[in-house]
Amino acid sequence: MRLPLAAFAALVVATVGAFFITQHLKVTTPLISAVSPPTAPVIVPDGGSSTCPNSTSISFYLLHQADSVNVYVVDARDQVVRTLATAVPMGRKQRVAFTWRGLADGGSARAGTYNFRVVLVHQRRTIDPVIVGATDSPAAVTVRAVCSAA
């Protein structure tokens, strides 16, 4: 009778401990900083122009320690549509820009809204979606099939 009770108590303690660790990780300082808004919030992959560019870039730096990063573009369903960088080494506070030309793995990305995901390889941490500065807004990009600017 004592063994099941002890096992239950151990599980409760482990669950409570995991909860507090998770909450701490949610409120710790950001892993990346100085995220600039996308250089072009709306792009047209096929036939860009000065009013509707065909590419956009985001830039950021690592706040605490150097690492290698993977950078992805994800769609509204949280599916990766394009890999922008794989295991790119970044130093601490070394700003790096990543450019997306509106392409998916199978050609041009479909019309819609896309976000960026950053994975810190050695720290095994993911920033998804990437947030712009202190705005609490994702670094989102809208892809259009045709330019609708006047």
Can you walk through the features of this model?
Strands 2, 4, 5, 9, 10 and 13 form a six-stranded mixed sheet that branches. The protein has a three-stranded antiparallel sheet with strand order 1-3-6, with no helix packed on it. A hairpin with a 4-residue loop joins strand 11 and strand 12. It is of the alpha+beta class. 17% of the residues lie in helices and 39% in strands. The chain is elongated and about 75 Å long. The protein contains one helix and 13 strands. The protein folds into two domains: 1-29; 31-143, Immunoglobulin-like. It has one helix at 2-27, and strands at residues 32-33, 42-43, 56-62, 67-74, 80-90, 96-100, 103-104, 107-108, 112-120, 125-127, 131-132, 137-138, 141-143.
Largest sheet: 6 strands, mixed
**How many distinct folded domains?**
2
What's the architecture of the largest domain, going by CATH? Sandwich
Question: What is the average per-residue confidence, as pLDDT, rounded to a whole number?
Answer: 83
CATH class category label of the largest domain: Mainly Beta
From the 3D structure, determine the CATH topology of the largest domain: Immunoglobulin-like
- Percent helix, as a range, is 10-25%
- Note the overall shape: elongated
**Terminal CA distance:** 77 Å
Low-confidence stretches: none
Q: What is the number of helices?
A: 1
* Percentage of residues in strands: 35-45%
Helix and strand string, N-terminal first?
Answer: HEEEEEEEEEEEEE
Rg for CA atoms: 20 Å
Task: Give the total of beta strands.
Answer: 13
> What kind of oligomer do you see?
single chain
- Structural class, judged by helices and strands? alpha+beta
